[in-house]
Amino acid sequence: MTTESTDTITASGNATAQSNSESKDYSKASATVRRIGDLSESSSVDDDKLFHDEFDPVYLAKSKVLSDAIQHIGMGKYQWELFVVAGFGWMADNLWPIVTSLIYPQVIMEYPPPGGHGPFIQLAQNLGLLAGAVFWSFSADIIGRRWAFNITFFISGLWGVVAGSSPNFASVAVFDALWSFGVGGNLPVDSAIFLEVLPASHQYLLTVMSIWWAFGQLLTTLIAWGLVGNYSCESADNCTKSSNMGWRYLLFTMGGISLICFLIRFAFFRLYESPKFYLSRGKDELAVEVVHKIAAKNGKTSDLSIEQLRVFDNDTDSEGYDRPATTLFQQRIEKFNLDHIRQVFGTKKLAFSSSLVILIWAIIGLAFPLYNQFIPYFLQQRGSANEPQSTYITYRNTLIIAVLGVPGALIAGLLVELRSGRKGALSLATVLTGVFLFGSTTARTSNALLGWNCAYNFTSNIMYGVLYAYTPEIFPARVRGTAIGLAASANRILGVFSPIIAMYADLTTSAPIYASGALFLASGLLVLILPYEPRGKSSL
């Protein structure tokens, strides 16, 4: 913190004014502690048990002060710009797995996989996503969010472009795993960054963020329709590189888009480290400084001072602010232990909630790719009267399906504010997603199959929009990255099994679709027994 900003935050007029200020701060502190247990009377969340039993009440009281300060600043320029650049993360999270599913039919035509195991590409992708989810999300609670926020797009963009030059099937799979390592870190980090600077009055925007997820699918399928649909082989007979350049063009294009997103994030947007991350690391002064920077970016001022946070401490010594970089690095490494994981399972009730959330993520992690990664293949193989469709029609229909995801994302933002809350919206959308998959097995024409898939994509976008908002909302910033990381890792671990199942299940039958639908139904019912409902509660 600069001398000027420190003076702005901590200066006091005289001894009398300072005494009055301290008295006021202690009064605010006392009121804040009393309010921690009832942040929202309308919420069904038992905030007192959720927080006081598992987490340091001093940290939670300070976090509430920060939340109040952010609410006072309101939604402004900084948050709206962050809505866009953080939205790139939602976009990439759907964009790159969709790329894999879109290039899959053409890659196996040009490069027949060994032993006929084409789903090895999806297996490589899911292993990369798993590694990325584990590394980036767990490190976010240790070294901060900014590193992952800026570098993940560079990794995915670079290897995406390189993959366009792949000389064989194995290299496609390897490069897929490498770009997926970058993709795997986007959502766990970006959701934490965005939520931690959102005013409570605008917290529903975390759900609306899923519009970027839908846009990622729409953008990818639109480009694929033009490139893969027009520059591809129609069959594996004499399918050469020169006659099958569409999937390569798609990789070059999507890799280039990811690099542009990296450039926008890195060069044109100044991301401030999360104030609640600083708070969780004991760096109160830096947390206050960031709040003042956000206020300035929004053209406002904040009356938050370091004294308002220090009144909660028995010892107001601000350790660690002026330590050399080597000491800070050593401190960060020492914090990389199991303490964050233990806090996620702090009591029986929280352990039950966390375990259930992780289980739901895991089940969806198997159900979604088991069907979604093979949608173009299913569409191509199940044309009118079950006759294969042309490549052009296949990608056109995939685009139509993608369009339905956009209104789904917007409706999700409305549903989470109803009395049924996040849980009601998530359960309904997940169950309907499974129902529509079962319905798709009854299709006997390409148009019928297209209709069922449009309904499936509509509800699945609602499902993911609510799921991606619910999970970070029920954890404080101190363990938010770790908690999301555990859920995302479980999602990716089960996702690894979807291509393995596909290898040994006949994709020309409805067996994978029945399995996927049943898993969605099961996860939708599990949502109903989640103990916490974060509607109306400001994040801590």
From TrEMBL:
The lineage of its organism: Eukaryota, Fungi, Dikarya, Ascomycota, Saccharomycotina. Residues 1-34 are annotated as: Disordered. Residues 1-21 have a biased composition (Polar residues). Keywords: Membrane, Transmembrane, Transmembrane helix, Transport. This is ARAD1C19514p. The chain crosses the membrane at residues 80-99, 119-138, 147-165, 205-227, 247-268, 350-371, 399-418, 425-443, 449-471, 483-505, 511-532. InterPro entries: MFS_dom (IPR020846), MFS_sugar_transport-like (IPR005828), MFS_trans_sf (IPR036259). Belongs to the major facilitator superfamily. PROSITE patterns: MFS. Residues 82-535 form the Major facilitator superfamily (MFS) profile domain. GO terms for molecular function: transmembrane transporter activity. It is found in: Membrane. It is a multi-pass membrane protein. One of its GO terms (cellular component) is membrane. Its main location: membrane. It comes from the Eukaryota. Pfam families: Sugar_tr. Gene3D superfamilies: MFS general substrate transporter like domains.
